[in-house]
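Curious: explain these tokens?
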Amino acid sequence: MNQSPITVLARLYGLLVGGLLAAGPFAAGNALAANLAAAAVLPTTTLLREDAPAAPVDNGAFAPGKGARSAPAFAGVLQLSAATLQAKPTLKNQVIDGRDALRFPELSLEFVTLGDTLVPVQRGKMVRETRASARASYWRLIPQFGRIWQEKADGSWSRAAFPLMLVNDTENHAHQGLATFLYRGKQVSGLRVQFVQQTAPWLLSPHTVLWAQVPATFAAGDATQLAARREEARAELAARLPTKPLDDLRAQFPAGTLDGFGGPVLPKWQVSRAIFKEGTLYYEAENTAYGPYPYPLEMRYGVRSVTKTVTAALSLLHLAEIYGPYVLDLKIGDYVPGADPHWKKVRFIDAANMSSAYGGVGSLITHPNDNGSGYLENDYNGWYTAPSVADKLAHMRTHLKPYPWEPGRVMRYRDHDFFMLGVAVDGFVKAMRGPQADAWNMVAEEVLRPIGIFHAPLVRTRELGGQDGPAWFSAGYYPTLDDLAKIALLFQDHGAHAGKQLLHRPLTDAVLAARDALDKDGDGSDGLPVVRDGEKPANLYRMAFHFTPLTGSASGKRHYLPTLSGYGENIVTLFPGRIVSIRTAKVGEIPQGEQAEVGPDDMSDRAVERLAPF
């Protein structure tokens, strides 16, 4: 049988993957045997000790195994002391901006239970350290839904376990982890934690596994809120999309149909994959060095610039629905005090298109354009780590300058544009609704919650006195697979959900059709069509969407797929037929001599297109 070049490459990719997974510090480990109980890996005597563990254990110890029985309800607060995290391999820089990346933060987490589900009260929130020593922790925590159970070997003790993310308020990578403790009445053991997967690092490298035994004590929670908290958890779980393992989708099609899905990123560097099709989210998490991650649907990811589309498109299209499309033409400088005068010429939509014409430290050549020119020059990390709005503005005034062309004409990749857009949108919302209003809170309450997203953790600027400032629009979002799929579906459904128009429909449709999109490789001001027949497909950009060219196998026609893209090879792609594909990955700080990608860039898109050729 003849096979297409794409199919052959996909199969070769699979063979190569098999070899690469067999070696290296992040090679896939063997899963905990299905008939082995958690108590056999982490017995009560181990969890009741406070000495530092020598190494992580199999992830199966953090979920009910063979012989698990129902456990009594748990309600209370775990008061966690600071602890030292072990790291393998060791970090290049343990201390960043005066904060310690090997300090597990001192804080408290409250829990209730709903049947056998462990419900963190602070789930989906970036919980910050409450008391720091001379050196504060680099980390915040995001807890997620877990489980409770009993095992015969534990005697009178019960077990609780939950997914736990280590996240940071300066950058946007997440360490996906697991935590477990014993409880008996008002007695609790220490908290064993291990962080065995992650999205791509930036300031903190290399890729590393972290673990610790964290001292914990019990305190009573708010008993008056038990019923309300259980009802909130029940509603949140009921609002999730139907899910099945990705293998269930594979089984519906001829063998090999999804070969290459997730590529060209090799599985070693992937974190998870998912496809939404015909009402179901099919998911798969990549194995870790300590076995399968037992709660893949609870994982939260640092998706970097995927944030740009989520923040910019949702806020602008929602504001356009409420106040009118004129919002896109408002000027950034009118809502950002202290900005360079150039921003008085830059519209909201110009910043969302990364065409502010500000940040002139790169080439002045626009034919062809190099949209990445100057992106990381002139002390980018100094701006990136500047904590407050005022600090970031001061850094920009010192290091950047306007380009000689007008805004709206040339796309140059600049996180600064989205930072300015976020501050300006927040200023506009305050002008319309009062000083207590907040742009991201508006999106969370008026757009995300109606579509079933109950939590929207996002990095904000750090203002004087430790106060949170405006949300970053450039990066910083920590979504789940369910969150990403629901946001993509809202765009595909013309900005409407359950009969209510949340986003301006004509503008939403125009954006997804790439109408008035900028050609990344040209300046878009020469009067010629952006997409030129017979030439290499253009790479287009508008309102933080990348538009990926793909020629349909059925029609032979070129399509431009709306794509959310973030550093580390995090990709969300919208396909015809209400299909969405998601890949989260950690392609960053690749060790010398390693390979992270093999095959053509469109490998994953080709695999998904085979499900429903267009």
Summary: The chain has 14 helices and 29 strands. The chain has three domains: 1-28+240-299+570-580+589-614, 38-238, 306-545. The radius of gyration is 24 Å.
